Amino acid sequence: MMYQLYQAQQDLLNPFRLFAKGTGAVLRQFDNGRPETFPLRQFTAALELLGSSGITHARPPFGFTTVQIGNQEVKVEEEPVFSTPFGTLLHFRKDVPVAQPKVLVVAPMSGHFATLLRGTVQVLLPENDVYITDWTNARDVPVSAGRFGMDEFIDHVIRFQEEIGPGAHVLAVCQPAVPVLAAVARMSEQKNPATPRSMVLMAGPIDTRQSPTKVNELARSHPIAWFRDNLVDTVPWRLKGGGRKVYPGAVQISAFISMNMKRHMDAHVEQFRNLVGGDSELADAHRRFYDEYLAVMDLPAEFYLETVKSVFQDHDLALGRMTHHGRPVRPEAIRRTFLLTVEGERDDICGIGQTSAALDLCSALPAHMKRHHLQTGAGHYGVFSGRRWAKEVYPLVRGLFEEAAG
């Protein structure tokens, strides 16, 4: 019922937002920068803020058209390699004379689109042949496509690795660290030729008993029935996924915003000042952030509830109780895949020790094939995006790829 009311509200407000955005763009042309047009500039800034304030449900573009490799600018094309109703294996294809390491970037299915990892991909692109899991918004997946839970997530990781082929690497960011470790364990046990040469787990909840954060405590604060009854809703019938049970992205983003309401209000006040003052660089940075932040996707209810219960409440992987289609997940079966775990010193989502727990679980790996990095000064996003990722974390990832290939 709540989803129906939310969608009705969005349908009502969207025309006003579009009108505000269009009107603001027209009025901006009459601003000559003189003092007498200052009120017009203020009105235009207010219209732009109103026009860009709404939640959207479509994936923003990655925006990669070229990449600099040495002294050469190389064209980048997005190439869908394999698709299911729930996700696409997206390849950033480049024409380069020398074969580069193939790497699958597994994006979180946690309320935002894969474009949240744009900064991760941008750093990888010059030296690697990059693929990414481009998950579909669950509200766009027909009920006839069936369920999508933890087993199906693991299935997708395995199938995507098989499509890429032998000799590739896998890099998981945040939530998918658990299903990726499970997928590599199952592939290793089955001696799958596409088992990745190396696995990088970044800020992922392998064992949330270690240094629990507010996110972990929230997941443990209610029984799973509470999450099902209060946070799961039904997609309205007029949408492609009508009738599908989901954890709505709008619910999650509303919770995130309410947790940091003052920071978001201050950011929009500052954006008003930037627009009025003509600071286009800061205004563009604000637009880019909120265009991505307010683009949300719904999660299949099965996957959301199974993740809460298995990962955050029951700690199945850490305690050796996780299964995949009824068969045990055995990280100790991993014997030939190099492993790097990365954590952020100031991560308030995934606490210190939660990701590095994978090192002990992969007990059959020799010591020289597994390592850990604690990134000083980095919060959750700083592990895989921004200056520290580019300058301090990525060189370790590159070194892992090289050693695994050798």
What does the model show?
The mean pLDDT is 89. Helix 2 packs antiparallel against helix 9. The protein has helices spanning 2-28, 38-51, 118-124, 150-164, 177-189, 214-220, 224-231, 249-259, 261-277, 280-293, 301-313, 357-361, 387-405; strands at 66-69, 72-84, 87-94, 102-106, 129-135, 169-173, 198-202, 233-234, 245-247, 299-300, 323-324, 327-328, 338-344, 370-375. Strand 1 and strand 2 (72-84) form a beta hairpin. The longest helix is centred in the first third of the chain and has 27 residues, at 2-28. The protein has a nine-stranded mixed β-sheet, sandwiched between helices. It is built from 13 helices and 14 strands. It is 42% helix and 17% strand. It has two domains: 2-54 and 260-293, no CATH class; 75-219 and 299-405, Rossmann fold, CATH 3.40.50.1820. The protein has 406 residues and is of the alpha/beta class. InterPro entries: AB_hydrolase_fold (IPR029058), PHA/PHB_synthase (IPR051321), PHB_depo_C (IPR009656), PHB_depoly_PhaZ (IPR010915). This is Polyhydroxyalkanoate depolymerase. It holds the Pfam family PHB_depo_C. It comes from Teichococcus vastitatis. Residues 203-402 form the PHB de-polymerase C-terminal domain.
Short key terms for the protein model shown above:
42% helix; 406 residues; 2 domains; 13 helices; alpha/beta; Rossmann fold; 3-stranded antiparallel beta sheet; single chain
